[in-house]
Amino acid sequence: MTAHHVDHGLRPSSSDEAAIAVDIAQSLDIDCVVHRVEVDASHNLEAHARAARQAVLPPDALTGHTLDDQAETLLIRLLRGA
């Protein structure tokens, strides 16, 4: 198994977060590959970030999200008036 971390470089702390991902993987005796990508943040950021991830991740990669993704999605939808 190999862990993959995609660093979109969108936050000043993104390289620190990538290093944490590597440390966690190493503590579990798992190889970790960090992919640094450039994303067009001028419009449709989520779509560009998704395309960048899909371009660098292996086709058989299983992806995961943070535990609060559902709450975050709900909040965003409420703020958008959905």
Describe this structure in words.
The chain has 82 residues and is of the alpha+beta class. It has one domain (2-79). The protein is 45% helix and 15% strand. It is built from three helices and two strands, in the order E-H-E-H-H. A two-stranded parallel sheet has the order 1-2. The protein is globular and about 45 Å long. The termini are far apart.
Summarize the helices and strands and which ones pair or pack:
Elements: E1 2-7, H1 14-27, E2 31-36, H2 45-56, H3 69-79
Helix/strand/pairing class, anyone? alpha+beta
Helix content: 40-55%
Query: What is the topology, as strand order, of the major beta sheet?
Result: 1-2
Rough shape?
globular
What is the number of strand segments? 2
SSE pattern? EHEHH
Counting H and I runs of at least 4 residues, what is the number of helices? 3
Terminal CA distance reads 39 Å
Number of domains: 1
The share of residues in extended strands comes to 5-15%
- Let me know the average pLDDT: 87
Largest beta-sheet characterization? 2 strands, parallel
Alpha carbon gyration radius: 14 Å
Which tags fit this structure?
single chain, 82 residues, alpha+beta, 45% helix
In short:
The protein is of the alpha+beta class and 82 residues long. It has helices spanning 14-27, 45-56, 69-79; strands spanning 2-7, 31-36. Strands 1-2 form a two-stranded parallel sheet.
